[in-house]
Design goal:
By secondary structure, the protein is mainly beta. It is built from one helix and eight strands.
């Protein structure tokens, strides 16, 4: 019985640590916030004081204007938390694009995402 209680307690104590390594990332991109970004990332792998999480990314066109291309694109998000307070480095791969964002995870801070096809877009990323 003591062994069972100890196993349950160990599971309860370990659970918050495991959940802390999962993160829901949301965001918007585009000059009129016409793209919605969603990703559920997990990990981490620690490398030189930086934590890296990754997972599937969905980029959805939510703007009212028509556009060329699919309304929903699937890809991958890799996000690294650096030693600099509140700064992240994010790599977004979708629809043949490789994009990089370095900045804050904040719903109120607008940053820039630079892509491999000479495209630079305003972006906001935040944790949910």
């Amino acid at each position: 019985m003591k062994l069972l209680v100890a196993a349950i307690c160990a599971g309860i104590l370990a659970a918050p640590s495991a959940r802390a390594r999962d993160l829901q990332v949301r965001g918007v991109a585009g000059y009129l916030s016409e793209y919605e970004l969603t990703a559920d990332v997990s990990g981490p792998s620690a490398d030189e004081g930086r934590w890296e999480l990754s997972g599937p990314l969905t980029v959805k066109h939510v703007g009212i204007c028509t556009h060329t291309g699919p309304n929903e694109m699937l890809g991958q998000l890799k996000i690294r938390f650096t030693n600099i307070p509140q700064t992240v480095e994010a790599n977004l791969s979708y629809d043949g694009r490789e994009c990089t964002y370095i900045g804050s995870l904040s719903e109120s801070v607008l940053g820039l995402m630079t892509c491999n096809n000479n495209l630079t877009l305003p972006v906001k990323l935040w944790m949910k």
